[in-house]
């Protein structure tokens, strides 16, 4: 009769618990995504809260600093919506109504272009018109489904209220939550490792959200100034789109650039100048601005970023795409910290010569 192997049973139960945990995360993935967004929003507001908390007099909790930070944030959002958001909406409506006329005007031959290039342009335009006609027919047949999807999206607008509320609790009780997590591990090397990992994760998320916000703001400003100088139609709308798409790694900026080139071509703007600006700005942002803002803790190889974006889109759609880079950076932190702890315990592994 075979004996009972405690080690094998421990491995089996561990595997069962891991599988059950993954399945539970899959079941609550939508709720988990909302909490992750709230945590990221908390990290976005954290510098402002810390600044206000440092300058407010007297000993108190962070509640007053949190309340002032939320008032300032809401005020900035309202100011942006009133001053710029209304103009963006007007340009979006004008683009929808004026696009067919601009495409029709673009169909005429351009004497300034070489014949081969002009013919290629007309062929591309014909293909775009056919695609628009096809999509329009599909859109008419899909209107009932679109209505249901709109109701589904509208029902989720409550998250715009829930996320700031959850962020408030993260900002208020974040340090207490961190202490409770550390209390799960006894004093010793394991607790020190967990403390180091939590510190790295805190620095990573703070740097990542600060960098994303500043990169989006820089993109919006640079695009708006450049498009205004070059006379690109709907420049404010294109700049806002580019700033929003900065939150989607790699794919977002490429999509924004493609939209800008298409609108510039249809609007008879200098397409070559727009292309040169887009390439120059991408080089400046990817190799000068972004490394300085992100910091060493968020550096991820471009191949890994592309893999994370496409894999995240397949696994979890848009949420997976948005969270691909911070997840990869978290995995990188865990690997380096665990490797450093193993080297500290056992010493570096020396390669064996042949």
Question: Could you describe the 3D structure shown?
Answer:
The protein is mainly α. The protein has a domain at 185-342. The protein has 11 helices and no strands. The protein has helices at 6-27, 29-55, 63-106, 115-141, 143-155, 159-183, 189-230, 235-245, 251-266, 271-294, 302-346. Helix 7 runs antiparallel to helix 11. It is globular, with a radius of gyration of 26 Å.
Topology:
Elements: H1 6-27, H2 29-55, H3 63-106, H4 115-141, H5 143-155, H6 159-183, H7 189-230, H8 235-245, H9 251-266, H10 271-294, H11 302-346
Helix pairs in contact: 2-3, 2-6, 2-7, 7-8, 7-10, 7-11, 8-9, 9-10
Gyration radius over CA: 26 Å
Structural class of the secondary elements?
A: mainly alpha
DSSP summary: helix tally: 11
Q: Specify the oligomeric state.
A: single chain
Strand fraction equals: under 5%
Helix content: over 70%
Question: What would you call the shape?
Answer: globular
Major sheet = none
User: Uncertain regions: pLDDT < 50 for 5+ in a row?
Assistant: 136-144, 146-151
Overall pLDDT confidence: 76
